[in-house]
Amino acid sequence: MKQSQSEAQHTDVKDANVSALIEEQGNHWNQALVKAIFSPDEAQCILNIPLPESPLPDLWCWHLAKNGKHTVRSAYHAYINSDASPLTFSPNANSSSGPNPLWKQLWNLRIQPRIKHFLWRCCTGSISTPENLARHGLHNSDPCPLCKDIDSSSPHIFFHCPFATAIWKYAGLYEFLVEFQQPSWHLWIREFISPSFEGPTELIITICYLLWFHRNKSKFDSINMDPHSVVISARRLIKEFQEAQGWPERFSPSLSSHPLFGKPQPGPCIYVDGAISTHNNCAGVGIALLDDRGQFNKGLSKKFIGISNPEEAEFLAFREALFMAHNLSLSHFTIFGDAAFVVLAIHGETICPLQCQDTLSDIHRLKHSLSVAGIYWIPRDANFLAHDFAFFAKNMTSLLKWWSDPTYVHSQLDVFQQS
Ligand SMILES: [Zn+2]
């Protein structure tokens, strides 16, 4: 019950119970006492509260549920819509304007539920970063487990730590993220899920999740990972999850307006894709050549034994396309692939993984000796021909197969999928 100025004047009722305001019979308020203690408005509110006909014992009630019983769900909704929630941060957001749109945005992300839950914990300040621990009186001066720097704050863990920086560079996102830096990690991560953010939210959040996971692995189990494998794992987690859900690949507006995002080009076009079979420890490369009228000319499935890294398969696919162009004496041709990191690496916009550097050197050498109109990146759905040829390649018994009819590969794929 609200304490009023008038109540403060009645020190004799300061520690009294509500029952002191009720008549002895138990079903009427003591109007005179209520009016004497409270302001007229407060008194009217109290007198409007109905009393039960027969006396009931005192009990605790949860005022946010109609039946008076506490539920975690009601507390959660009250918290999320309250000013106390770290999610109600927008200057325009207040408790009367409904749930924060950020919250809806978060749960609509196309990433695994456990990663969304991690993100929710980040946004509500409940991951055990030094700042969050300090808010609960737990001061921790341990250095960063990954680089031993005395700064182990969340901006360090997720961005400034050399381990994190290397990851963002491998992912081709370092330069992009620099401009989004905020003094606090809460503000930083909220940028990525705000409706106006035009970057690859799902990849960024998944990398953050893995960064935190590896920070803990290093801190508690002394297990260290290499930054490159974190990026591969992040891409794989997203791809596998979205494919399992049957969702098409989604591109953010900023990515589709990226200068390396493929658009229709004149001249011959070569579509490339790589696939791996961890089970057989081999990679498949698929190439589809379309002539300058956009008609299918030929396709290639090529198998590489002893390669189980998806990035290596993608780099090999681009090199194979250039070999094909060289052998067919193509000129003014364009190459399209759905592996954005390879396209970025070829254009020097991201760091090439160590094990792919020889292949990248070959790509650069061939690119300079040939008349290449451009190398671009396209969505997975637009690369279905090369995808099918690559998928076929990793499963085939021979090492090389040429295709003259793209429809033929589908009947062959059906045989694979049935067996
Ligand atoms: Zn560090």
Automatic annotation (TrEMBL):
Family matches, as CDD domains: RNase_H_like
Domain RNase H type-1 stretches: 272-390
Transmembrane segments: none
Pfam families attached to this UniProt entry: RVT_3, zf-RVT
Residue ranges constituting the Reverse transcriptase zinc-binding domain according to the UniProt record: 98-168
The organism's place on the tree of life at top rank: Eukaryota
The name this protein goes by in its record: Reverse transcriptase zinc-binding domain
Organism per entry: Rehmannia glutinosa (Chinese foxglove)
